[in-house]
Amino acid sequence: MDILSLFVVVPVLTIIALVFTKDLKQARLVSMVGSIFQLGMGINLVFAYFKERAINDSIMVLTKDVVWFEQFNIHYAIGVDGISVALIVLTTIVVLAGVFISWKMPDLPKEFFISLLVLSTGVYGFFISLDLFTMFMFYEIAVIPMYLLIGIWGSGPKEYSAMKLTLMLMGASAVLLVGVLGIYFNSNADGGALTFNILEISQVNIPFEAQKLFFPLTFVGFAVLGALFPFHTWSPDGHASAPTAVSMLHAGVLMKLGGYGVFRVAMFLLPEGAMHWDTFFIILAAIGVVYGAFGAIRQTDLKYINAYASVSHLGLVLFALLTLNKTAWNGAIIQSLSHGLLTAMFFALIGMIYGRTNTRDINKLGGLMKVLPFIGAIYVITGLAYLGLPGFSGFVAEMNIFVGAFENPNMFNRVLTILAVSSIVVTAVYILRLVGKIMMGPLVNDDFKDLPRATWYEKTGILLLLIPIIAIGVAPLWLSDMIMASLEPFIKGVL
Amino acid sequence: MDFSSFLLMRQEIILLAIILLLLVAEIFIPKNKKSSIVHLAIFLFGVHTVIGFLSIDECSIFGGSFQTNNLIHFFKNVLNIGVFILLLQSADWLQEKIVTQDKGTEFFILLFSSLLGMYFMISSGDFLMFYIGLELSTLPVAALAAYETSKRISSESGIKLILSAGLASGVSLFGISLLYATSGSIFFHDIIGVISASNLTILGFILFFTGLSFKISLVPFHFWTADVYEGAPISVASYLSVISKGAAVFILMILMFTIFKPLMHVWENIVYVIALATMFIGNLFALRQKNMKRFLAFSSIAQAGFILLGLISGTQLGSATIVYFILVYIFSNLAAFGVVQAISLKTGKENMDDYDGLYRTNPNLSLVMMLALFSLAGIPPVAGFFGKFFLFTAAASEGYYLLVFLAVVNVTISLYYYLSVIRAMFIRKSDNPIPFFKNKLYMRLGLLITVLGILVIGMYSPLYDYIYELSSIFN
Predict the structure, then answer these.
(1) From the CA of B461, how many Å to the nearest CA of chain A?
(2) Cβ contact B427–A177 (<8 Å)
């Protein structure tokens, strides 16, 4: 068994083991062991990647290729480059943190952890796929458990939110399907056989007419998952209703599939189409950046604030990808990682606060720092990292994005960049106001005096996320190296 | 022609022998042991299904009236498996409701006669044999639909089915007579050579197509479907939606890919429009259904619309994807109908609201239903995903991107109502949930086979490759 296939096999084995568990204790133990194993595999993968990279300079390493459906030339083809390695490691961290945060899951625990692991299987499979068919398949596998996760264990208008989220994401995958088929049936443009293999298609000169037609379909299909304005509306409702661990996984990992897919499929395979549609989509992305930030200011529900903030920050990822600049691309990938960790952290903290106070309304909260020192301190740190304070991952990402975006001499791009940069100021406004309101000041509600402190499993989950945030912020170069080396083929193809 | 040619009709002859055997058994089985007829019928049909897998020579006998080849033979096996699962799922209902009224044997005889009709229909080499098969496959089902004579709604369903089927076969027959008038022959292989796109031929084709559309319940010939499904016993509704529809699609595909191929420039437009209408109307009507049987009726109308996407390509790829999809569809739909059947038999409840909170009382049944609905909706990794993806690939291979796009929009619409059932079972809670109950052996076996099918058929690629190879006759 090669080390990439293990990322699909181990979660599946964990799921099978979970089927036989009897109660919450067994279920969380099994999921914890499975997730720790995944984290170990993730760390191992980083070393294996560097080792392989030293002797092998092809685009994708650790590859494997097995024919699946011969008639359609569908293969089980897997492989990774620096970008996917980074995102896989992110996933392993967030999944494990999610398991810890869900330590006390009262209702149907077994089913909860199974759904969570199905989701993570889909995400891993997506990141390792080199074949459009399996990639598409794993994308849908990752999305569909969200329905049950939000519907069964959610809060508020959960039926509505779950249905809205699922239908919008599956609708997006429907659009994507047409795009994928379009790419497939043009993959023989140079006289070769039809293929779903990304590396082979990238060598083919797909006719411009086809690229023009299928780029928007592929782009939108993925970008909806990355909360592209105006298709972001599923995200605030979905996040607000989802249980804590699901919000974490969703904002932290699942939404990254969008940016990754845009980059790996839409832009890599249809570069001329990307050039053609660039202006249109970059405007949408920039609107998303600014709109999300202003949307966050207006909200009073903690989860809605973070959901809109995610729209803004992931808009920045799409924006950076569409600037077609190497530095910005590097920033986009780091932003994906950084946002994944930070948002997961935020949602975990919100879950802890909500679990203790039973409210997420910022007007009813205040002075929590006094009664919840650990949670409060981490909240402040996360907030500062979120608005891009140097020393944390957020700064590295945004710095790269804006420097790269501004390098473009085009006046139009520069104006858009300035607009997007303004979102940083707005982010500072809502984050600082939020921290001031709920953490500082006098305690507003006397009922909050005896709130229980953070438990060991909550602290473990938090630390798991905090360590990489600081690591990326303090020593970003090793990560940049890994990503930069993997950007080369894209630069040849697109720029 | 010597006596051994009869062996080439092995499937038909064995089935006929089973029918006669049951008739005789009815006489000899004492009155207090009538329920053993159910065991006997299931056993005999099981043996028949297994024997069916022995290979058969390609042939054409009775002067070309009857023909068979590997694809047709394979498809008969598919039908056999479907009917076998259906029998397993109906066994409890038969023993509790039907055998006690002393109507058990007739049920099997009518059902098997209808299946025999389908064999002849898909093996036909001329329009006469085709028509006889069509009638033989339809008339017994009308009797079956009215089988629960104690219920008025069941009789109504039988009348509706026989009237609409009668009209449909009349229209079809008129079409056939026009085709005979223009080509001078009723034999398929004669017609292939002389068919041309004259107005009369096109009119004949359209009438013929209309007749079969009734059977597949394509829009706008679908009006009977929901009413008949709702009134008929669940086993019969299930038979109509799975076996009967599958066979009709198959013969339609064979005829359109062979004798009507020269008219392709005409029929591709017709199929295009009907596919869109069928998908949209089936899906939009399904959104509002509260009764599970009506719900599955509209869902099966919508599924027929998806099948037309394979038909429109007119190629070997299209044929392979259609047969594959029908295979997947048989397992998925039978699983869904099986769960509805089990619950209806134990509690008499057939509405979607009654399913609220089902997962907490009957987790296994809910999981089977969930897999079935995921497969019908086309969600990976279950078989339905592969079936739909390949159908869309077939349509896209001929450049029908807009049609594929509208079809995937429909997939999203359909997801809403499939998820509504899942919402009822998993998310909602009920004050009065369906209590826990255990199914009997036959029902459990019937559901288990469908679940295995749903899980395995998609992943197991050699099966698709095999079907693709069999479809090479359309090259």
Answers:
(1) 5
(2) no
CB atoms within 10 A of CB B52: 21
Q: What ipTM is given for this predicted complex?
A: 0.91
Q: Using an 8 Å CB-CB cutoff, list chain A residues near B405.
A: 174-175, 178
Q: What pTM, to 2 d.p., does this model score?
A: 0.93
The CA–CA distances, whole Å, from B201 to A298, A375, B194 equal 68, 79, 11
Alpha-carbon torsion (A104, A107, A110, A115), positive or negative = negative
Which residue is listed with tokens 């497969």? B375
Most B CBs within 10 Å: which of A8, A12, A18, A69, as the mutation test of the B interface?
Answer: A69
The most distant pair of C-alpha atoms in chain B lies apart, rounded to whole Å, by: 69
- pLDDT of A281-319, one tens digit each? 988 998 988 898 888 888 888 888 888 888 888 888 998
Tens of pLDDT, residue by residue over B200-210, are 999 999 999 99
Of A140, A159, A185, the CB nearest to B380: A140
Contact B157, B232 (CB under 8 A): yes
Write out the two tokens for B163: 């009237």
- Please say whether the beta carbons of B99 and B161 come within 8 A: no
The verdict on a CB contact (< 8 Å) between B401 and A178 is: yes
CA distance A383 to A392: 11
What is the spatial distance between Cα B237 and Cα B325, in angstroms, rounded to a whole number?
Answer: 20
* Cα dihedral B194, B199, B202, B207 sign: negative
Domain chopping of chain B, boundaries: 3-474
Task: Give the distance from CA A260 to its chain's centroid.
Answer: 9
Note whether B419 contacts A148, CB cutoff 8 Å.
no
